[in-house]
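The protein record filed here:
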Amino acid sequence: MWVQAREFVFLGAGCLGTTEILLRSREYGVPLSNRVGMNMSGNGDILAFGYNGEKTANAIGTDNEEYLKEHPVGPTISGIIDMRDEEVSPHARDGYVIEEGAVPKALAHFLQVMYDFTPGHRIPHGLGLLRRVDELVSRLTGDMLGPWHQDGALNRTMIYLIMSHDANQGNLYLNKNKPSLEFRGVEHSIHVKQINNLLKTAMGKMGAEYIPNPFTSRQMGRSEISVHPLGGADMSPDGTGLSGVTNHLGQLFKGVGSEVYEGLVVVDGAVIPSSLGVNPFATITALAERTIQTLAVQKGWEIDYTLPKSNVCLRKPIDH
């Protein structure tokens, strides 16, 4: 549980892992900002479903090779609706993206039960008699022949993954020596309600029944879902530990002042101070590369970018 290094320790254990390490380190007596674990973000992530639409979605994974030859299951997030354009969303924090998802085989038989018990369904208006009969038949067909049947309701269900913005409402802390993460939820914000209403309208155009995130229902304990937790060691906006945990390079403050541990550096999503409204991987990578490059310059080191990426290394210049 202890790490010793000659010059640098780079923390890249992920948002939750890095923040837990810092919380435990502070308990062991390492002076850090009091804001460790505070104001974490779920990146405004929203999960929703368009159940039993007019078109086949093939969004359920399987290991049946014969089936896949005829009906390949596409990769998750192979398409995106980008609603971050200024003409669409004049305010940066109003922007969001909508991406399509798929589920693994292990969850296939759980989906129908989950859909049935999730409140907040919205059946599209204006469906003709033939379409209503088609919906009923597809539901019964899926129940009898399984979730992968081409005319079944589950195989005509789209999965929507939305990244938007929240108000940094999460906190990670140690409770009886175990990490505990509490989110007060993004689903209560006006912005998120607007996105859900848009999804309802879009799904209605495709003849699909809108099903909101089942894990925010009262029956499921109103849990939050996010695949992009951010923060916990936020960059400080004023260069002190009073309002953040790290400086702009990810170096940890020794308390509430501006003094930092020069060799203790966070290089993952824990430094992101807010939601991004899009998948955060590129932003995290850019910040990490900037940190490494800047620290190398400060140390008088060179990074040889001409080498294959698998062999990139730091080296000190030769003294003449």
